[in-house]
Each structure stands twice: as structure tokens, then as C-alpha cells.
Write a structure and sequence with these properties.
Largest sheet: 8 strands, parallel, barrel
Radius of gyration: 25 Å
Strand content: 15-25%
Shape: globular
Number of helices: 19
Strand order of the largest sheet: 1-2-7-8-9-10-11-12
Number of strands: 17
Amino acid sequence: MDYSNRILCGPMVRISSLPFRLLALEYGADVVFSEELIDYRLTQCVRIENELFNTIDFFVPGEDRPMLQIHKTREQNRLVVQLGTSDGQRALNAARLVEKDVAGIDINMGCPKKFSIQGGMGSALLDHPDKVKQILETLVNNLSIPVSCKIRCLPTIEATLSLVRVIAKTGVHAITIHGRTRDERHNDQCREAFIQAIVQECLPNVVIIANGGSTVIPSYADIEKFRLRCGPAHGVMLCQTAMWNPSIFRPDGLLSVRDVAKRFLEISLEFDNILPNMKYVLQRMYGVADNQLEFYEKILGTETEAELYDLFGMKNDYEQQSDEERQLWREKLRNRLMNISDRPAENDIIEKSVKFIRSEYTAMTPKSILNAYCIQANIDKPVYHTEELKPQRIFRTVIDFNGQRYSTTSWEKNKQLAEQGSAIVCLQSNGIDPTRAKYGINYIKTCLSNQNKL
């Protein structure tokens, strides 16, 4: 894929789902980016071909919605997946999972959010050029698709140029420059002079993409004006202005927000998008205009998909969409994921794809159920071994119980969730249904009466 002379729709958290990306492409974007996907989460995924939607879906076992959904034809050669990473090998493992399905891999080196920085990702990488070099060279030398990265400006032009020179030598195809430092936000002026200086450096075989001009790009014609002021840059990436109204990519001019929103809902219906994502995207479209605040509140107040579609006068569209075929697909998918994930793992650890949801255990938690079972059976209580993966600060627990070890297939965001999840695996593997055992000791006693021991 060639990044030159392209207008790109950039990566946006909770925005850049399949329906929004397809909408941007439909309006004229040349290339679209996924939202940032954290490397270790992507490597947990299973790749599944979805015949119903003609998509490639990447699922974390135990979850009922894909982390990443790619349309086979409408996004072919036009989708770049952005990764959040702090390690070259881990990034490579994640990239290889999607390599045959996407046009390129991009590394996020500009996100200033606390989660990214604490994990050594995003803009934290700007202070570590050696790590930047290691990550990008690992990907460039081992992937068959283009590699790019997105950075922010450092405090001075000289410091920014120094980092860009390091990046250019790794062999990346493109570098996107967000014209603000990590401490600046969209209300701060874009540092167009920084981008211009990088372009004028004339780095060989590297496309420089200008980003950060949303506040000065109210129309399609302003995209080219921004590009020229920035060097001229070889391409332009739009994020916030595309989020506000993705018809910014139309050479023929902007459409009304309502027309854009209705088209987004049509595509969402086509691909079984979930209500939280639809509401989030629509709120970003309507939340920037003072004269739309009342309608924004109405969007916020919808509690069902039917209410949301009715609000936009699309009740008939929603009701005519048959759900029977989707339910059959979901059941087929659920069974397939169960077959993949419910298996003995390496080192004789029994793994299952389960999640601890606190609201489902109002009386007894899985750990307390397991302890109660041990007391009733007069056997030793389980031993919990919890591992923390740094710098991401995610956790996984392995339980030693009655001569066997148990764990979940995925990492959790805290120790409690990891331990409770592994307790569910242990209970289920030994014939105990924690959703029934939570109601008390009688169920546990019934299970004991049916078997001498676990």
C-alpha cells in the first residue's frame, strides 16, 4: 500500500469500529485505521471467518463481540491496524495474527493517556529512541506488509527531527506527525512549522503524514490547505473532524449531521453493531454543536436499539431486520469458541474462557464457594498463584487444587478478577455450577452426596 497523496481516517478509541470505518470509506477516505489495539489483548484472539457479514472477526475467547472486525472486500487494501505496544516481539506476535487481513500495521507512539504511559506505550516511547528502533525494526524485518508509526512533537523542532531520523532509518513506510506535544490538547494550536521542518528534511522513502489540524479543517477544501502549510506534507490524517462529521471526506461537501448519523445507523444495522458503540459515536457527532444539545440528550436517554432507531425515524428499518439468522450465527460462534478454549493447556493446566462478573454473585463469590466446598468435603483449600505482567499491569491466576491446576484463557485487569475467574474454572471442571452454588450450602451438599470427593 502506498501512503503518498492519501487522506486517511485516523485511529480513534471507541469510534473506529467497522461501521464507522466503512462510513468514512464510503464518503471518500483513502485509508482507514482501526482504533488502538493493545498487543497482548490481540494475541489472545481467535480468528474466525464470519460468513453472515463477509468479515474476518477476531474474538477473545469468553467474549461475545469481536475485538476487531474486518470486511473482506470493502476494506481490502485500505485498513491499517494500529497497535499499542512497548515490546517488539509482542507487537510482532500480534501483527502476525492480522497480517494477511490488513494493508498495514501502525504503532501508536503518541497517545498521552495514563494507561498507555504507565504501560510504556504511546507517548512514553518518545523518550526511548532505542526502544522505538527495536520495535519498528522487529516489525519491518519480519512482516510482509508496510509498517508505520504515529508520533507527537517533542518540545523542540531539533528534538523532534532527531527522533524522526531514528524512525526513518528503521525502514518504515510512513510517519504520521501529530502537531502537538504530549501535554497539549486539541484546543492548543497545531505546530505546523514542526511538520513542515520534518517534510523539508527530505527523508528518503518515508511518507510524512500531517495530523492535528481538525480545528482548522471545517471543510474538504481545508484539508489541502492544511497539507500545503505543513510542508507540503505527503498526506493528511483526520481524526476529530472526521469524528464530528465523517462526510468531511466528501469532495462535494459536508452532509448534514442527521443524514450522516442515519447512514451510520444503517451500516450498524447491517453489521449487528452494539447499542453502546452506536450511542457513543452519535454523541460525538451531536455533542459539538450548540443547537443540537437537546437532541444529544435524547440520544443519551435511549435505552434500547429500538428506541434509538425510532428517534431517527428508522423504526421500520430496525423492525424489518430479521434477527433469526444472527442468533443462529451467534450460537454457532459460541459453540466454536467453546471447542477452541475449553481444553487442557500446556503444563497440564486446565483452561476455560470464563469471566467473573461481580453482579452475578450477590451472595457467595466463586472463591468463597470453592472454600465452602473444601470445608464440606474435608479437603485442603486451593492455593492461588497470581502472576502480574508488567508494564501492562495485567494479572493471571493459576489454582493448585486437589492435584490439578486451573486457570482462565485470558489476563485480567486486577488480581481479584484473575483469582475469581480461575475459581470459576476450577468449580466448573469439577462438576460444580457456581451460578447455582452461590445460593448456599445446600447445593454444595447435594453435589457431595453425588460423589465421594472432587
